[in-house]
Write a structure and sequence with these properties.
With 432 residues, the chain is of the alpha/beta class. It folds into three domains: 126 residues, HUPs (Rossmann fold), CATH 3.40.50; 103 residues, Serine Threonine Protein Phosphatase 5, Tetratricopeptide repeat, CATH 1.25.40; 153 residues, DNA Cyclobutane Dipyrimidine Photolyase, subunit A, domain 3. It is built from 20 helices and five strands. Strands 3-2-1-4-5 form a five-stranded parallel β-sheet, sandwiched between helices. Strand 4, helix 5 and strand 5 form a beta-alpha-beta unit. The protein is globular. The structure holds flavin-adenine dinucleotide (FAD). Flavin-adenine dinucleotide binds next to helix 10, helix 12, helix 15 and helix 17. Belongs to the DNA photolyase family. Its cofactor is FAD; (6R)-5,10-methylene-5,6,7,8-tetrahydrofolate. It holds the Pfam family FAD_binding_7. Keywords: Chromophore, FAD, Flavoprotein, Lyase. Its EC number is 4.1.99.3.
């Protein structure tokens, strides 16, 4: 009998909690990856860069496993059907996975657990992608925090060296099943094309010490761009948090804690993917102008900072955090377009798309979320530009025609007008 380790968003051999426990089980470990048809079928773009990223990572994992005389079993199917077949083909003692907190993944994992259990196979699950999960950092009365600062305080007071320690997976890789290289379905067979997008590397240490000073300026590379690696587990959160914790300035660590905060929120409030965290905000009468939405998506709002951000996003799959806030605010507050439309567009385009953080970021911008900016605080895109892109370097990089700004199209909506309209719409919804 074998143990199976099922890779999902933890695509690495080193410091991997579930893989470590599988390898220590004493049985040979068969590593598995499923290209889940249910997820892939939802994607709108045939050249979705995240699929290429996963694909290339899977190929790399396969090569690494071959060095241990092993291979990766790669299946393209719906997860439940894939498992029904795997059970037929293999004599399985136990299956190991790492936790995934997204609503779809939780439902899927429960279904797989039942299928396995009907065959007497145990599903063993582990925390891997965060330092603290679920109910590990909660208020004294056991309820989840809904405000970041006290959550962060509790996170700090709960941390012990144990939580930051890596799992020494390497030591046990000899326990992998010995098999010949298995075939991998091609991207084309799965209906995708290879993306030509550039993927950021895994360096992050160089940004930590100056992060506080540099993180707000989109024209400089003051942030790590490591989001995609956190998303797919091609880096270990323990390594990142350990390094950040040991550094002099803890601002970057607090960003990693924001990530965990939003994952905890998503776990406890899964309805917030589609509903306002503060329910009264679901009463807002959105205007949802389709033409304006399309102009926003293309980066043609006439607000150069927003246009630069949207064009950066469309071209690279990345947008600077400061600009994400400004662009999201413009959509939800100036244009009164439902934040879910913007969330959906970001989800389609961001290489570092993370459901918990994206929903959290959008609800923050719309005013409906945890810790949200109060609705009457409405970003002024020009004032934001003066503060954070004073020499217009970022704007000119992504919107070169702005060099002659006398010819740049006028904003699709006037700031003062939009501000008043927004205040009225939000007040009306919240007064009910
Ligand atoms: P760094 O600044 O170097 O930070 C390191 C890591 O910390 C990030 O990779 C990320 O994992 C985490 N982090 C940083 N800031 C935040 C934050 N505010 N909330 C949660 N985690 C954070 N982040 C995502 O990872 N995925 C998303 O889909 C996403 N959507 C967003 C949507 C909106 C409207 C807004 C305002 C923010 C969103 N963020 C999202 C948060 C933040 O903008 C990105 O994490 C950050 O810009 C990624 O750049 P970086 O990797 O260089 O991060």
């Amino acid at each position: 009998a074998v143990s199976i380790f099922w890779f999902r968003r933890d695509l690495r051999l080193n410091d991997n909690a579930g893989l470590y426990h599988a390898l220590k089980s004493g049985r040979p470990v068969l590593p598995l990856f499923i290209f889940d048809k249910e997820i892939l079928d939802e994607l709108e773009d045939k050249d979705d860069a995240r699929v290429t990223f996963i694909y290339e990572t899977i190929e790399q994992l396969g090569r690494e496993l071959q060095q241990y005389g092993s291979s990766l079993l790669v299946i393209y199917d719906k997860a439940e059907r894939a498992w029904t077949n795997i059970i037929k083909d293999h004599h399985i003692a136990a299956v190991y996975i790492n936790h995934d907190y997204e609503p779809y993944a939780r439902k899927r994992d429960n279904a797989i657990k039942e299928i396995l259990s009907a065959h007497g196979i145990e599903l063993k699950t582990f925390k891997d992608q965060v330092i603290f999960e679920k109910n590990e950092v909660v208020k004294d009365d056991g309820k989840p925090y809904t405000v970041y600062t006290p959550y962060q305080r509790k996170w700090y007071s709960s941390i012990k060296p144990f939580y930051l320690k890596s799992y020494p997976t390497e030591k046990y890789l000899k326990n992998l099943v010995k098999i010949k290289a298995l075939p991998v379905p091609s991207l084309q067979e799965m209906g995708f094309e290879k993306s030509t997008m550039h993927f950021p590397g895994r360096e992050y240490k160089n940004v930590i010490e100056d992060y506080k000073e540099k993180r707000n300026f989109p024209a400089i590379k003051g942030t790590s761009h490591i989001g995609i690696h956190l998303r797919f587990g091609t880096v270990s959160i323990r390594e990142l948090a350990r390094t950040a914790y040991a550094s002099h300035d803890k601002t970057w660590l607090s960003e990693l804690i924001w990530r965990e905060f939003y994952m905890m929120i998503l776990y406890h409030f899964p309805q917030t993917t589609n509903h306002a965290f503060r329910p009264e905000y679901d009463r807002i009468q959105w205007i949802n102008g389709e033409k304006q939405f399309e102009a926003w998506c293309r980066g043609e709002t006439g607000y150069p900072i927003v246009d630069a951000g949207m064009r950066e996003l469309n071209a690279t799959g990345f947008m600077h955090n400061r600009v994400r806030m400004i662009a999201a605010s413009l959509l939800s507050k100036h244009l009164l377009i439902d934040w879910r439309w913007g969330e959906h567009y970001f989800a389609r385009k961001l290489l570092d798309y993370e459901m918990a953080s994206n929903v959290g970021g959008w609800q923050w911008a719309a005013g409906s979320g945890t810790d949200a900016a109060p609705y009457f605080r409405i970003f002024n895109p020009d004032a934001q530009t003066k503060k954070f892109d004073p020499n217009l370097e970022y704007i000119k990089k992504w919107v070169p025609e702005y060099a002659d700004f006398s010819k740049y199209p006028k904003p699709i909506i006037d700031h003062a007008f939009a501000r008043e309209r927004c205040l009225k719409a939000f007040k009306a919804a919240l007064a009910k």
